[in-house]
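Hi R.,

As promised, here are both runs. First protein below:
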Amino acid sequence: MQIAPSKSLSQAKMLGGIGSILTLLLFVPYYIGAGLVIIGWILILIAVKDISETVMDKSIFNKAIISVVLSIVGVVTFAAIVAVTLLSFFSGGGTLPMAGSTSLPTGFLGLIAGLLIGLAIVWVCSIIASYFLWQSFKGISARLPVGLFGTGGLVFFIGSLLIIAFGIGFFLMFIAEILFAVAFFQLPDNPQPMPAMQPSMGTPGTP
């Protein structure tokens, strides 16, 4: 593994650790939590870029960028589908079901279908985005002596797969974010090249 000369990971360690902690604060009220999560992921992205430059492996940062782009695409697509679905529903004279009613209002099934399609797109995008994040963090573990990056990335990916399983996925993703925080704080300030694997010697007489 190559290390950029005179390159320290102190900044990546601090930014990534703080960013990972901020991603845990989603439940802070009044939309403050959502803002903190966004700031947290921005800090993590900056930290990953620093690590990528330090170990001289651009693929680590590139995969993280792909993950972020896919997440944004999923959220924007979901918002657009929901907006179009609601606009179509209410402009067409649709109403929500009344208490005690035995029949569904006109267009209500279309409303539900639109919302489900939007959620499905977000889910698929989150799975693919989580996969690229896992690959990015696995690359960090392969080049620096911090195995928790790969472990956390795998847990995060599995969590994205299980989001629809009664919230189990969200719990796993929360655990993964804790692992990310620990992993960043375990980064060495001044990384050293990892020793290369020595080829095994053949037994005497082996060609």
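And here is the second one, sequence first, then its structure tokens:
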Amino acid sequence: MIALFSPDSEVIRIGSEYLKIVALGYVAHTLMFAYMGVVRGAGETVFPMLMSLLGMWVIRIPLANLLSRYWGTAGIWWAITLGFCASAAGSILYYLFGPWYKKVIVRPAGDVSPAVSAGIPAQDS
């Protein structure tokens, strides 16, 4: 697949190594987006944003800095994969156990005013 972009054997070797390491991370990344999409659709937007920031700035970038010292560019790619996996794990846990499902976006049709919901009868005009 990489040969479609470059015939250079070194580019193909490095690209193949990258794909082998990061491919599983993209499965985790897809899971994170699916679960956080459900949570965002329910009106909870802060946690998905924090999970994305955590995966990128707290896990991926520091790990890339650390692992690249020992494994070179492969360390950066492992950091990408581990950041995706950590974000996916947090997202799935929040989906399963978080309070997002209690959020109310749309009130039922009969609940039109605070007076009605408090049990005060509407006045006829």
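A quick note on the second one: Helices lie at 9-41, 46-71, 73-97, 114-117. Let me know what you think.

Best,
J.
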